Amino acid sequence: MGQIILCETKEAERTYEFTSFHQTISTYEELCFCIREHFLFFVEEGISKELLQWIANDLEIRDLEQEWAKLSTPREKFQKLISCRNYFLPQEISVLMKKYDRYERMTDSERKVRLGDEYLKQKRYEKALKQYRMSDTREEDGRTLYNMAVCYAHQWDFETAKGLFFKSYQLTKRKRALEAYFSILMFQGEFASVKIMAGTDYPAFMKKWETWKQQWKQHSLEQKKTENNQYKKQKLKQWKREYRKEME
Amino acid sequence: MIYGFDFTDNICYISSYDGDETKELPACPCPIEIEERMAFINDYRKDTQDAAVITVETLTKELVDAVEKEKNLTFLSKEEAFVEYVLQNEKGVWQRNTAVFEFHKGSFCFYAAGRRGKTIMTEKEDIMLPEKGLNSAREKDKFFTKWVAEKLNHRQISTVYLIGEEFEGEWMELSLASVCHGRRVFMGNHLFSTGAMLWKAKPLEKKDKVMTGDYHPYYWGIRAFHQGKKDVFVPIIQPGSLWFHTEGRIDVLMDECEELEIEGMHSISRQEMKLTMPLGLRQEHPTRTSKYRITMRCTGTKGMVAAVYDIGFGASRKGTGLIYQEEFKLP
């Protein structure tokens, strides 16, 4: 059985929205969950005045606001925020603070890359690219180049993506980057180029390619189904509204 | 003027206090129906400032709610009226316990009160009269002797009150010797009405809590992470409220949970109880994003209901509502 944790604070009537990762919250527990899931945003952006006021007025955690001024460093403020009520266990707080310290020791360039990775996780490709482009070390980092290529590919800029995947492969010699490069060539209809470049690996790649194609097909079907369900729900709501109007 | 009313079957015992002295008014016949009884009381309360305290066998929510807006009308349980009477009259009595036998035509009842720490505990037991009835003085004597022995022997009871018209007459022979053995015994019919009247007229600054059967005596709670410590006892219900006002709730974060254990402890005897709720919760959402509300309330002096609700996760996810409920009896 997992740990049972007492929730001490009430649910706020007015919600708070994090614009950085588009999350709306109404409880302290949700705030802590967001800190866990989107840790880097909190470290990078700090705790805003609006969030602090919302915590004090809407969640009624007034002691935090009172002690805030006494805390001199952002680190102390962050620690206070995650430990002022029940959510994180002591060992989890210690892990988060170690993570915080690691992030603090990073260079500016490394931080940009990490933030870019976070945006990529959220499928916010333009924002991720913006962060990656600000990193000075991107040209030497095969992993960053790969992630940048993923962003470009999702934005249908296959030419740039192709180049970056190949560059990433040259730096890291990772098969994944090469396969991604081949996949873009396949999309562009350059089957012969793939066959020549892949050489003996060609059958293995084609096998994978077929599996990916199946997966994409499945994924798009499911997406259509979800959209269809949402459409049905909206239609049902509309009918209900019309019916109620008629009844009135 | 303050009146204390004790309605017993069709006889009413009344005590009054005019600001200077207390009086026990002669017993008089009274109506049975509640509305007629209220009219009967209002006949005495000529002035709007006149207050009345009415004793009842057991307090109910309906009774308390009915007089909530009436400024000078209060219902009090007989147990509390008894404690009030003893506290105001017999200051030395609390060294040991005190008991009351209440004997009317169709009923026989035993009350006891004693101090345990800073709490005055009372007990009440309705004793069944023999089906054939008590037809002779000898039968009455035998019956009373038996219950005196059962209730008073092996207990430290220093004072006994005999209340009710059935104690009148010369029938007590064996029982009188038994009841008076090492105890002070008083007879009279106005104990409850006077206790009720004194409760209003001369409120004591009580340092001690009176715990009658109408008050819930248990702490109820669970073990949870709280203020940096694991497995801290978190109370859901605290003892000391009238049973129909006793309810509590807490919100917790729970992930996988096969069964939830609710712990109970009697506030005086420290007797422990455990209630195991087979929830069978599976990990359906990310870790620590499932909130549950545990509620408990009394359904009677000896009954409780505990329930668990899925309340979702704030603005992120709506809950599914009640997932488990169990009714259980208290010892």
Provide an overview of this structure.
The complex is a heterodimer of chains A (248) and B (331). With 248 residues, chain A is mainly α. Chain A is built from 13 helices and 3 strands, in the order E-E-E-H-H-H-H-H-H-H-H-H-H-H-H-H. Chain A has a two-stranded antiparallel sheet. Chain B has 2 domains: 2-211, no CATH class; 218-329, Sandwich (Substrate Binding Domain Of DNAk, Chain A, domain 1). Chain B is α/β, with parallel strands linked by helices. In chain B, helix 3 (78-89) crosses helix 6. Chain B starts with a strand and ends with a strand. In chain B, 19% of the residues lie in helices and 41% in strands. At the A-B interface, strand 1, strand 3 and helix 1 of A face strand 12, strand 13 and strand 14 of B. Strand 1 of chain A pairs antiparallel with strand 14 of chain B.
Describe this protein with a few key phrases.
heterodimer; A: 248 residues; mainly alpha; Serine Threonine Protein Phosphatase 5, Tetratricopeptide repeat; 72% helix; 4% strand; B: 331 residues; alpha/beta; Substrate Binding Domain Of DNAk, Chain A, domain 1; six-stranded mixed sheet; five-stranded mixed sheet; 6 helices; 19% helix; elongated
